[in-house]
């Protein structure tokens, strides 16, 4: 299946991930500035989207787009975040698997807002977030994650996940509930190569330590 990579305007990654596995690479206008600082190969970029500071596209961005032949899509709708609008564009182009960098760090209301957007899209696309500490994403009711032995695994209800069973964690769950504000499943450890998670109701966000 086709796979897209999206950079958004949170904490910039310290290094650029391997780009070879992606069919489309996009960024928001805020992320474009840190990609330049990281000396990102702009010839690999397919599109940049955003409101461009009150609808004014910087001359530098226009010149870069001409030089490197990437698309500029202006999205002035202030009722949606740049992340939300970028996802809509990528989905419209036919992508269902999207990796996202830059969702965490910086102002924490942005991070929570990005999780809210991910929650809204969880049944439409497979979204995975990556930062310097972990990868994290919403998981379906039956889920297996591979090659994680020794890694820290956290399970966060959003806001409730019921009748959870796990196999392969140091502290397993057996038909137990997690409820935000009461009990969450952070800082567990994978003891097996593969970890199996099942639950009956609600939504569950998993964090996998790097």
How does this model look, in words?
Helix content is 23%, strand content 37%. By secondary structure, it is an alpha/beta fold. Strands 1, 2, 3, 4, 5, 6, 7, 8, 9, 10, 11, 12 and 13 form a 13-stranded mixed beta sheet that branches. It is elongated. The mean pLDDT is 91.
Q: State the major sheet.
A: 13 strands, mixed
Are there runs of 5+ residues with pLDDT below 50, and where?
none
CA radius of gyration: 18 Å
The count of DSSP E runs of length 2 or more, i.e. the number of strands, is 13
Q: What percentage of residues falls in helices of 4 or more residues?
A: 10-25%
Looking at the structure, what is the overall shape?
A: elongated
The SSE string, one letter per element, is EEHEHHEHEHEEEEEEEE
CA distance, first residue to last residue: 25 Å
Q: Average pLDDT value?
A: 91
């Amino acid at each position: 299946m086709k796979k897209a990579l999206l950079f958004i305007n949170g904490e910039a990654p310290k290094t650029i991930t391997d780009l070879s596995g992606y069919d489309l690479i996009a960024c928001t206008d805020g992320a474009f500035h840190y990609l330049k600082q990281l000396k990102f190969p702009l010839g690999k970029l397919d599109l940049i989207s955003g409101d461009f500071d009150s609808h004014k596209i910087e001359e530098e961005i226009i010149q870069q787009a001409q030089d490197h032949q990437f698309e500029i899509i202006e999205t002035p709708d202030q009722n949606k975040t740049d992340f939300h609008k970028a996802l809509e564009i990528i989905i419209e182009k036919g992508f269902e698997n999207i990796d996202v960098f830059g969702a965490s760090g910086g102002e924490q209301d942005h991070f929570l807002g990005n999780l809210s957007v991910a929650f809204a899209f969880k049944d439409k696309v497979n979204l995975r977030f990556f930062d310097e500490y972990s990868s994290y994403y919403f998981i379906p009711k039956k889920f297996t994650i591979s090659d994680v032995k020794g890694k820290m695994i956290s399970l966060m209800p959003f806001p409730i996940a019921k009748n959870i069973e796990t196999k392969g964690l140091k502290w397993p769950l057996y038909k137990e509930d997690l409820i935000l504000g009461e009990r969450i499943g952070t800082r567990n450890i994978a003891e097996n190569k593969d970890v199996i998670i099942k639950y009956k109701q609600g939504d569950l966000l998993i964090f996998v330590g790097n």
